[in-house]
Amino acid sequence: MASLADAQPAIALGALDGRYRAAVAPLVDHLSEAALNRERVRVEVEWLIHQTTHGIVPGVRHLTDAEVAALRGVVETFGPAEVAELAEIERVTVHDVKAVEYFLKRRLAEIAPADEDRGLAELIHFGCTSEDINNLSYALMVKGAVAEVWLPKAQALVDQVATLARELRDVPLLAHTHGQPATPTTMGKELAVLAWRLGRQLRRIERQEYLGKFNGATGTFGAHALALPDVDWPAVSREFVEGLGLTWNPLTTQIESHDWQGELYADVARFNRILHNLCTDVWTYISMGYFAQVRGQGTVGSSTMPHKVNPIRFENAEANLEVGNALLDVLGSTLVQSRLQRDLTDSSMQRNIGSAFGHSLLALDNVSRGLAGLDAVPDAMAAHLEANWEVLGEPIQSAMRALGAQGVPGMEEPYERLKELTRGRRVNGDDVREFVRGLGLPAEVEERFLALTPQTYTALASRLVDYLP
């Protein structure tokens, strides 16, 4: 048997880099191993520029504008050739961050080749432990992935749900609590609930802080303070970290504590769980005939039953949300822990961030495509409402309670009387109207309830949709 492992180009082991590559490809620029190395190069370059610009090490000349541009160009042009070169260096160093240092020293020798400039190379990675570079790199990677890829996709989906809610704001829907017929609502209002919940989580995620530290091997600026005791190293550290667009963390061990990551992943996971709720609700509405999947008629629903159009987008999304959340949960719980001043579990764990966001992004794509293929079926919703006149027992007994409290005679035991009429049996419009006529209600109240139907008993549901931003 031929070995698939030897095939060229290499066959992906996982679904994200195989079957679903197109949907998650935008994350490669942010959360791949190559993106990690590019951000490491960026941090090292910016640290070298920062040192020379601010004269931190006495006697070292400033880089020229052209040299600064050339160094930043190394980051901007970082591509497959550079990835391969770094891999070659790492095979010798057997250390990923050290490989980045040597890679940059090669580039600096090309940018500033004069003999008197050779000392500049010693400022690459000066005073740094690997985690000084890695924590900033991961913060930049995750920040970019969230701001440029995940959040726009998530916001677009929330907007899509909100638009659908507004379109269906007035379409009456039989609610179900505990799986039983309950007070009618509108399809728009129920979708608005989900859009509101999802939007609230996005607003939390938009406010997320991305922390970074730059303080040496155990967070004490030990080597820095002894090498250059006259420098205000906390001030230098803060200015450098904030210059990268991150929030400075002044108190750490060797590693940045990753608490911000735990906070972010918990919020993203919560968004995903609400989205999972949307998937199961819409799936159920489809099964009840409230939505028809009529677009994209060329697709195959079932391999054997031609009439079927399966709600596969929502089912696929459910699965990917569950896998993504499993990863987000373990990332959030593991990364906030470290033995004493450092252990290496976070290094391996953080390499799964891309997979966690990949499954989440794939779910967003599937839900969006699933919603785009739906058409509401108001007639089906109306038919279920017409078959459940007993739901009017709630407003009738509530009105009787209010009248009884006002001293209107004959309004005793309203709940019990409606229970006797409706519980365990089906009633129709004639049954309800006959019951109402026999209650002795004031004329205007009786008229109101004689005109009421399950389809019109939606109260303020339509108006509540207006609370969506």
Automatic annotation (TrEMBL):
The keyword Ribonucleoprotein does not apply. Keywords: Lyase, Purine biosynthesis. Its EC number is 4.3.2.2. It catalyses: N(6)-(1,2-dicarboxyethyl)-AMP = fumarate + AMP; (2S)-2-[5-amino-1-(5-phospho-beta-D-ribosyl)imidazole-4-carboxamido]succinate = 5-amino-1-(5-phospho-beta-D-ribosyl)imidazole-4-carboxamide + fumarate. It holds the Pfam family Lyase_1. Residues 338-458 form the Adenylosuccinate lyase PurB C-terminal domain. PANTHER family: ADENYLOSUCCINATE LYASE (PTHR43411). Catalyzes two reactions in de novo purine nucleotide biosynthesis. Catalyzes the breakdown of 5-aminoimidazole- (N-succinylocarboxamide) ribotide (SAICAR or 2-[5-amino-1-(5-phospho-beta-D-ribosyl)imidazole-4-carboxamido]succinate) to 5-aminoimidazole-4-carboxamide ribotide (AICAR or 5-amino-1-(5-phospho-beta-D-ribosyl)imidazole-4-carboxamide) and fumarate, and of adenylosuccinate (ADS or N(6)-(1,2-dicarboxyethyl)-AMP) to adenosine monophosphate (AMP) and fumarate. Belongs to the lyase 1 family. Adenylosuccinate lyase subfamily. This is Adenylosuccinate lyase.
